[in-house]
TrEMBL record:
Protein origin, superkingdom: Eukaryota
Membrane spanning residue stretches: none
Source lineage: Eukaryota, Fungi, Dikarya, Ascomycota, Pezizomycotina
Name by which UniProt lists this protein: Isochorismatase-like domain-containing protein
Cited PANTHER family: ISOCHORISMATASE HYDROLASE (PTHR43540:SF1), PEROXYUREIDOACRYLATE/UREIDOACRYLATE AMIDOHYDROLASE-RELATED (PTHR43540)
Coiled coil (UniProt feature): none
Keywords associated with the record: Hydrolase, Signal
Organism annotation: Zasmidium cellare (Wine cellar mold)
Domain annotation Isochorismatase-like: ranges: 63-200
Gene3D superfamilies documented for this protein: Isochorismatase-like
Family, as annotated: Belongs to the isochorismatase family.
Signal peptide: 1-19
Length: 243
C-alpha cells in the first residue's frame, strides 16, 4: 500500500467508481474495535466533545452507494442522538471553506490547493442529512487544510471548555480523520474514532487504506476505534456533559 498516494487525492472522486466506495458496512470485513464489545464500562466522562468533520458536499458523491448510505444513516443518527442528550455536549463541525471567493488560504505552491481547488462555496456547506443545532450550541468551523483545527479556533474552544475527550466522525478517513487524530493525540486529548461513522471514498486503494488506518495506524498510537453502538452506550454511561 502506498500511503503517499492516499495522502494526496482523497477529495477527488469519480462517480463511476461508486461501487468501490468503502464505508462501515463490514465490507470487506468488520473493523475490530480497540475496546472489546464485551466491556460494558466505557465512559467519556463529563468533559467530552463530539467532532463531526467535513460532512460537506463531498458526501453527495458517495450517497448512492450501499456503504455511503450506511455511513450517512449511522452518522446522522449519532448526531441526532447527541443533540437529544440533556444537556447536549459540545458538537463541533468542520468544513473546507475559505475567507473569501479568492480562496486566499490556497497559494499556488500549497499542496492542498490541488485537493481543495474543486470545493465550491455550495459544496463546502454541511450536507443536509446532518443537522447543525444552533440552540444546542453547535459550532461550525472553516478549515483550510486536512487537520480539523487548521486556521480556526478549534483548540481554543476545546481548551476553554476544558474538554479532555473527543469523539470523531467524518470523511475522509485518510484526510481529516487521520490528521485530526494525530494532532489532538499530540495535544493530550483522549481520542475515539467511530468506525461506522467514517468513510474512505473510492480510488487509491480505498479498502486497504481504510482498514490499515482503523485497524493498524490509529490503534498503534494508541487511540481508540469503536463502533457507534459502543459510543452510544458510553454516552449513556457518561456523566451529564459539561458545556
Ligand atoms: C472494563 O471492563 C473490562 C472487562 O469487563 C475490564 O478488564 C477492565 O479493567 C474494565 N476497565 C475499567 C476502567 O474498569
Ligand atoms: C444519487 O441519487 C440521487 C437521486 O436518485 C440523484 O439526484 C443524485 O444525482 C445521485 N448522485 C450521484 C453522485 O450519482
Ligand atoms: C456498526 O458496526 C458494527 C460492527 O462492528 C455493526 O454490528 C453495526 O451494525 C454497525 N452499526 C450501524 C448503525 O451500522
Ligand atoms: C436510518 O435508517 C433507519 C432505517 O431505515 C430509519 O428509520 C432512520 O430514520 C434513519 N435515520 C436517519 C437519521 O437517517
Ligand atoms: C467561512 O467560510 C465562508 C465561505 O464559505 C466565508 O464566507 C466566511 O467568512 C468564513 N468564515 C471565517 C470565520 O473565516
Amino acid at each position: 500500500m502506498q500511503l503517499s498516494t492516499a495522502f494526496s487525492s482523497f477529495l477527488l472522486l469519480s462517480s463511476h467508481a461508486l461501487s468501490q466506495s468503502i464505508g462501515y458496512n463490514c465490507n470487506p470485513h468488520c473493523i475490530n474495535p480497540t475496546i472489546p464489545t464485551t466491556n460494558r464500562n466505557l465512559t467519556f466522562g463529563r468533559h467530552y466533545a463530539v467532532l463531526n468533520l467535513d460532512l460537506i458536499g463531498l458526501v453527495d458523491s458517495i450517497a448512492n452507494s450501499t456503504a455511503g448510505s450506511a455511513f450517512i444513516n449511522s452518522t446522522a443518527s449519532w448526531i441526532d442522538f447527541i443533540h437529544a442528550q440533556n444537556p447536549p455536549p459540545l458538537s463541533i463541525f468542520s468544513r473546507v471553506a475559505f475567507s473569501g471567493s479568492r480562496k486566499p488560504e490556497l497559494g499556488p505552491k500549497s499542496p492542498f490547493t490541488k485537493v481543495a481547488a474543486s470545493v465550491t462555496l455550495a459544496e463546502s456547506q454541511i450536507y443536509p442529512a446532518f443537522k447543525v443545532d444552533e440552540q444546542a450550541g453547535d459550532v461550525v468551523l472553516n478549515k483550510s487544510r486536512y487537520y480539523a483545527g487548521w486556521g480556526n479556533p478549534l483548540e481554543t474552544i476545546l481548551r476553554a471548555q476544558q474538554i479532555d475527550t473527543v469523539i470523531l466522525s467524518g470523511l475522509t478517513t485518510s484526510g481529516v480523520i487521520l490528521n485530526t487524530v494525530y494532532t489532538l493525540y499530540n495535544l493530550d486529548y483522549k481520542v475515539y474514532v467511530i468506525a461506522n461513522n467514517t468513510i474512505q471514498p473510492p480510488g487509491n486503494n480505498a479498502p486497504e487504506v481504510y482498514n490499515a488506518i482503523l485497524e493498524g495506524i490509529i490503534p498503534s498510537l494508541p487511540a481508540d476505534v469503536i463502533t457507534v453502538e459502543q459510543a452510544r452506550d458510553a454516552v449513556k454511561r457518561s456523566g451529564p456533559a459539561i458545556y
